[in-house]
Here is the input.
Amino acid sequence: MTCEQCEENLQAYVDHELSPGEEADMRSHIDHCAQCRGERDGLIRFSRGVHNASIPFQESLEHVNAGILAAEPAGKEGAVVRRPAGMFGFGRRGIFTWGGLVSAALIIGIFLVLRPHGPEPDRLIDWAIQHYPLVDQVHGVRGDAVVVQEWFKEHHGIVLRPPAKADYAELSGCKMTEFGSQPVPLLRFDGKKKSAVFVLPADFSIPGDIRTIGTFARKGFRVEVWMEGSNSYVRVMQFL
Amino acid sequence: MNAAGTLTGRSLHEQDSADSPGALQDPWRSGDELAFRQMVQRFQGPLLSYVVQHIRNLQDAEDTVQDSFLRAHRSLHQLRDKDKLWEWLKQIGHNVAMDFHRQERRRGIPTDPETIREMGDQRQDRQGDDLNEADPPSLQAIVDAIEELPETYRQVAVYRFLQEWSYAKISETLGLDPAAVRQRISRASRILRTTLSKNPNRKDAQP
Here is the structure.
């Protein structure tokens, strides 16, 4: 292998995107070539820096997804879900948000007093059928996160918690593929068993080639996961 | 629509040309919500990267991208040439960004990209002495450098360096030969390194 060939493949080498044979050739060349070794080390530093810098970009894309998916489907104009301007709403426009915060606090206060209690699983079925005609069987709950958690704890003795990074890889033993470059969020029952609250069609079975086509998580306030297998797709969960 | 390849731009494109015009023009109403989601998946990264050029604040840029997609969804019927979907999306993104600037100006907040860029450059100038080769590049600097790449490399660079997609996924999404993807990433990487090594934090990012 020449240095020129090495240079051409160096990025793929650092990205672990070469075949085992190509990788072995590269390694062999780099081991004997100080110049290419230096190039490799520089590229690794560069890639690490780019990786670190790209994290906020990827987080922004998650927020973009959240806002789009939160908009009502079926052509209705959806309200865009805005990411908070910063901690406690402080930011470049923070000063303008205080009026909104006070109003929101009042609305939330009224809501807390007047809201119906309980996760209302029966109403979730109506909601799911209304919004997603393909869905004719529902296993799920929808409601205030705290109320849902309490309901599950009381009726099933299990504690739900918001999704964590470690939860993303598996769902009920089913390997979830990536959504863009984002992991798949889900709720997990405490303990070893991983599961989630499903909204599934009656004849739906999780196939081997299942892939996620949409998902978002906003700190446990709302989670929806879309999945697709064979020719069907399914809304899995809504958790408000 | 089968499971395989539904996220790919190629399958979206194929679907565009194969289906009746109305199918893509209003995918949600036609029951094909997936087509819209695919469009979002394919273009959200490139659109965010593009919009950050106009709105140099990631948080505001993501709102703008979100608005752009929702606006695109509402006006899909206005898209005449589906081969120009990306150009059309960019135009919408640009328009939404300009709306954002107008709103901010009414609030008395300087939003002109050049003004903000200058502010960033001034900050950078003050920090210039502290910079050295080991300084990691800022996100804004990376985005700026990517947007300056030749068109051939731009989307590939967004997918790889900002979204960290695998080579296979990029190849599938763009309908490109894997060898071509590898080559484009390699060349884009080389250009980016050269550009960023001159000043890794130029046009200072606004977190």
Chain A touches chain B through 58 residues (CB under 8 Å). The radius of gyration of chain A is 23 Å. Chain A is about 45% helix and 10% strand.
